[in-house]
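Q: Entry one of two.
A:
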Amino acid sequence: MTALTLSTAGAATLRADALVVGVAKGAKGPVVAPGAEAVDKAFGGKLASVLETLGASGAEGEVTKLHAPDGLKVPVVIAVGLGPVPEKDAAFDGEALRRAAGSAARALTGSKKAGFALPITSVEDAEAVAEGALLGAYAFTAYQGGENKLAPKDKKNGNGAKLPLAEVALLGGKPRDKAFKAAAERATALVEEINRARDLINTPPNDLYPESFAAVATAAGKEHGIKVQVLDEKALVKGGFGGLLGVGQGSTHGPRLVKLAYTHPKAEKTLALVGKGITYDSGGISLKPAGHNETMKCDMSGAAAVFATVVAAARLGLQVNVTGWLALAENMPSGSATRPGDVLRMYSGKTVEVLNTDAEGRLVLADALTRACEENPDAIVDVATLTGAMVLALGHRTFGIMANDDAFRTSIHEIAEEVGEASWPMPLPADLRKGMDSPTADIANMGERMGGGLVAGLFLQEFVGEGIAWAHLDIAGPAFHEGAPYGYTPKGGTGSAVRTLVKLAERTAAGDLG
C-alpha cells in the first residue's frame, strides 16, 4: 500500500514528484486555500489568477496540474478543488479534505512521492487528508500484467496500468506531536483494512469462494491475534444451519460460517458484527436476468466489511470485544439447488418458505444473527448488499440503516455522517410483516414488493434475540461502484461501512454505545 509520512519539510523545500495544494470556490473565482502560502508566493501571489486563466474554479474534485515555478523543489503543482469557501472562521469540512486528497492521489498515479499541503487546522483534518490520499491511491492490479508466453520474453501483456502513488508526505501534520502520530497510524491501519476489503470484493469468484475466503480470514487471524473458528458443511449440518446450507447447496463450493473474535483484557462491552458473504450470486433457481450477473462477485461486501473491521479493531488495540460472523455461501442453480417452494429449517428453529431463491442474503444472515445473539453481545450490527429496493430508494452512494432501537439507529447514522459515509435512517413498518405470512412455514423469505428493503429488515429482525440492540446496514448501493472513479472512491469495490463500523467500535470502547 501507499506509504504515509508526516513531513518536517515546508512546501517550498519539499523534494518530491509533485506538491498538492487546495483551491476553494469563491464568489468571484478560485481562492487559494491555507497551506499553499509558499506556493502562492512562488507564483508571485498570482496562483489564483493563473488557475482561473486555466479554467479552474475550485469546485469539488477539480484537478489542475501546473508547472512549478522557481522557488519550489518540485517540478509539478497539483491544485485540487475543495468546493465552496467555508463561512467566516469555519474550517473546511473533513469530507471535503478527504475527497480532495483522494482526487489528487488518483491524478498522481505512477508517481513515487507527492507532498500534500492541504489546509490542516487540527488532528482531525490531518487524519482526513491522510485517509483520502491513501484511499484514493488504491488500485487493484492482482490480475493485470501477466506474462504472455507467445510474445518475446521482455514483453508483457495486460493493460499497462501504472502503479499507484508510492508515498504520501503530509505537510502541516506536526510529526513530533503524539496526537498527529497516532492519527497517521490510525489512518494507515484503517485504510489498509478498507483496501483489504476492496481487494476481496474485486477478486473474481473463481478464486474467492466460501472456503478460500475462510482461509484468508484464518491467515489474518493468526497474524493479528484474532481467534478464528470455521464451520464447514459437516459442522453446519450438525448444528442445523438450514439457511446457510439451503443457499449453498446448489454450488460445488460448500458454505462456511466463520467466527472472528478479537478480545481485549480490559474490555467491558462486546460488539457483534454479521456480514453477508455471498461470494457469487446467480440468483439460484430464481435466476437473475441478463445484465445483472456481471458484478455479483460483490455480494460478499458485507462480510468483507465485517472482516476488515475486526482486523482493524485488533490492529488499533481497541478496548472492546469485537466478534465478526461471516456468513459465506455461493448461490448457484443446479440439480441440488434449493427450489422456490422449499421450506428450510433455520438455526433458530424457525421454518422459512423460500418463495424466491434470489432473496438468499437474508437466509444466511438469519442463521448468523441467531448464532451471534447466543453470545449475548451488547449490540449487534449486520451489514449486507441486501436489496435492489434500497438502491431504488437511496441511490448508489447512500446506505440504509434500520434498527430495533431508535437511539442506536440514530447513533450509527451520526457516526456514518461524521466519518464521511452517506447513510439514511429507515423505518421498520410493522404492517409490512404480514406480507411474509406463509401458509406452510413460520415465515416466507419474501413479502410485499413495495418497500422491499424494509421487508428484508423485518425478516432479519425475526432472528434477533430479545433485549439486544440491533441495526441492519443495507449497503447495496455504495458497496460496488460501476462508474468512473471520484474523490477517493475507485471503480469496483469500495469498502463501504468499514469506517462507520470501526468508529462504532471506538465509541463502544469509550462507553458511548448510544
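Q: Entry two of two.
A:
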Amino acid sequence: MIPGKDATVDKNAAQKDKFGSFSLFDIEHFLRRLLKNWYWFVVMFFIGYGISWFYGKYYAQNIYSSNLSLSISNSTASYFTPNQSINFIWGQGGNQDGVYLKKMLLSRSHNEFLVNELNLFVNYQTKGLIKATYLDKDDSPVFLEVDRKHLQQVNYPITIVPKGANSYEVVLPEEGQSTNLYSYEFEGFQNINNYERPANKTIKVNEWYTTPNLRFRLIPNPVASSIKFDNIIVNLSTVNDAVNGIIGSVGVDFDREINTIMIISKTGFNLNSTVNFLNKSVTELQKKRFIDKNTVDKNTEEYLKESLASIRKKLDSSGSVLNYLKTSEKLYDIDNRDEKSLEQIKDLEAKKADILSKMNSLNNIRNTVETQSFDKMISSSAAGFDDGLFSATVSELKALYLKKREMSSIYTPNSEPMKEINRLINEAKQNSSGSLRNVYTVYRDQLSKIDQQVAEANSELSTYPEKQRKYLDAERGYNMIEATYSSLLSRQNESKMRLATNQPDISVIDPAKNLGQGPIGPNVKGTKMAIIGGLLAFPFVIILIGGLLDSKIRNIKELLAATKIPLLGVIGNNTNENMLTVLDHPKSSVSEAFRGIRANMRFLASEDGKSKVILITSSVGGEGKTYVSINLASVLGLSDKKTILLGMDLRKPKIFGDFNIDNKNGISNYLTGEVTIDQIINKTKIPNLDVATSGPIPPNPSELLMSDRNLNLIEELKTRYDFIIIDSPPVGLVADSYDLMKYSDANLYIVRHEYTEKYMLKMITEKYHNDEIKHLGFVYNDYVVKQGYGYGYGYGYGYGYGYGYGYFDEDKNYKEPLLIKIRNFVKAYLDRKS
C-alpha cells in the first residue's frame, strides 16, 4: 500500500487548514547537521582552549587578598575614640567604637595620610614580552622618590633599566608628554609651556633626574631583592586617584560571634603590597587614636574642672541662703512634712540637673564644631551620648578644614577644587549638626517630662505656709546644684582615671602576612570555560539559526505528515552525466526506484486495460521533473508497454538533448497547425518508447496547451499508446499543469530533497484535499543517504536499502563506515559468546 493511503482522512475544515503547514523547526535535521559539522566543534574547542590558555598565562592579572584581625577595647571614652557603652539616649546598645573605626579606616583623611606617608602614588611594575606584573615597592631594587616641590607628569610610564654598577637608564615613552602637570605639594594641576620629549638618560642612585615634566631620584632598596628584573616600570598617580583606589579595595567586617573583633581585608595585584598596607594602616591608626584620646581627655578634664569651679560657687551661695533660712527664720523643723513628695521632687530635679549639665556640654561641643576649635574638643561622653558615626564625622570634618586651609593658598574661592571641598565640609557639618539636634530633642523631651512631674508634685505642697514653701524652694535649689556638682565631680574622676590609664584601645590579633595565598581573582577557570563555551556555542547558534531560517524539504516523514499526500517512491542522487539513468545503468538502485514508482502508480491509475495519461510536474524548475519523466517513460517502455513522452513544458524545452533528437518540429509546431502528429513523434533506441519534443518556444504557450487541438492530440495518442507521459510546466510558476491535470489519469508531483521550499507545497496540498486534483502522488527526488547509517526512508521503496549487499551496481564501490565496522565486530563477538 502506498504510504499516505492506508487510512481514511476526515477532511473537515479545521484539518484542511493544517494541511501543508510544516513545523517551524526540524529537530531531526538539526541534530543531523550537528553531527555532520562535528569537526567545527572540535576546531572551536581547540581555538577556545588556546585563547583561554593565552589569557590565563599572559593576560589575566591575578588579584590577591590579605586579612588582618584586631580587637577593640571596651574602656575607651574620648571624643575621637568613642566608648563601647550602652547608649542610654537611644535605648539600645551597639558596637559604636567599631562603627567609628570602620569609618576611619575607610575615610579619606586616614588613607590620604597613608598615601603620602608610604608614597603609594608611586606604582611599580615589570614587563615581559607580553604581560606586565605588578610589584610591591619592597620587591623593586630601587625606590623612586619624587621631588614634591617640582611639577610631575602622572600616568606616564617611566621605564628604569638596570645597567650595573648602581646605574639605571631612564627610558621615557616616545610620545605622550603633557604640559598639564601635577603638584604633590598642593595636590592640583598646573600648565607649563611646550617642551621637547626628554631624551633617555643613565643616572646613578641618589642622583636627581630632572626634566620639564619630571624630577625624581632612585633610592636603593636597603633589603636586597632576590628577584632580578630586566626592567622596572614606574607610574605616578595623583593622590586622589591613589586614595580612591585604596578605599575601593579595603573591606571591613565584624566577627559574627564577637562584634568587638574587626576583620580588615585588602585586595590588590601584589600580595606583599596588601600585607604591608594593612599592617601600616593599623599601626598609624593606633598612634592617631592614642594621641586623640589623650588630647580629648585632657580637654574634657579641663572643661569639667572649670564647670566644677563655677558650680561650686553656686553651691556655696545656695548653701548660705539655706543656712540663713534655718537660723534666722527657724524653718529647719517643719511640722507634717510630706517626705514622700519632697523625695520625689529631689530625685526629679537631680535628673533635671544632670540633663542640663549634659546640655551645657552639648552646647560646648556644638560651639567647638561651629568655630572649628577642634583642638579644644571635649569628649561626647561629657554630654551623655556616644555616637561612633557622629564622632567619625567630626574627625573627618577636622581633616577637611585642614585640607581647605592648605588648598586656599593655591586655589581661588570659586575654583572647582574649592567648591568640592566646601561641598564635603557642608555635608559633614549637616551630618554632625543632625546628630546634635537629635540629642537636643531627646533632652528637651526628657526635661519637659520631668517639669511636668515636678509640677504635679508641687501641687501637693501648695497647702504649706508661705515661709515654709520659701524654705522648701531654697532646699530644692541647693539639692539641684549639689546634684549637678556631684555629677560633674563623678565625670571628672572618670576623666582623670582614663587619662592616667590611657593605653591603645585596639590590639592586633592576627597581623596581615604573606602565607603564599593564592589569587582570589580573576576567575581564570570560569573565564576559560566561558571562552571555550562561547566558541563552542558559535557553530551551534549558526546551525540553530540556519535550522530556524531553513524552509527546504529535508525530511520525508515531515513531508507526508504535513501534506497527507501519498508517496510513490524515493529517487536517489543521479551521478550520471545525462538523464538516461534507466537506460545506461539498468541495475542501479535509482533504476530500481523508478521500477518501484511504476509499480506504485497502479494505486493512482487503476489497471483497466485502457491507455493512461501520466502527468509529471513540480513546484519550480530544477526539482527533477524532466529527469523523472524521461526515466519513468524508459521504465514503462522497457516493460513492453507502448509509451510516448510528451515535452509539454513549452517555455523550457529539455527532452530532445538526452535522446539526440532534433527539436525543430515539436508539439508547439503541431498545436499551431504547422505539422502533422506523425511529424512530431520520434523513435528512440527503446522499441516501445517514442518521444515528442516541445519544439520551438511559442509566444503563447498557455493558450496552446489549453487549446482543443492539444486535447485532440492527447485523445489521438491514447489510441496509439498504453502510457502517455507528460512533462508539464512547474505549477509554482504557471497554472498550465493544473488545467492539464483534469485530463490525466495519474499526477506525479516531484519534490526534491533539500531544494523544494515548504511553502511551495501549500497550494498543491490544498487543491488535493479540496478534491480539485485527484490521483496525486509525491516522488521524492535526489535523496542522498549516508551509507550504512540508516538514514533511508523506512517504507522499503526505491533508494538506499541494499547498499553493501551486492545487489546494485553501486555496491562494488561501497566502503563500510568505521562505526558500522565497529558495530558489526561487537555484534559478532557477542554472538560468539552467546
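A: Comment on entry two: The first strand starts at residue 64 and ends at 72. Confidence is low (pLDDT under 50) at residues 3-9, 75-94, 787-807.
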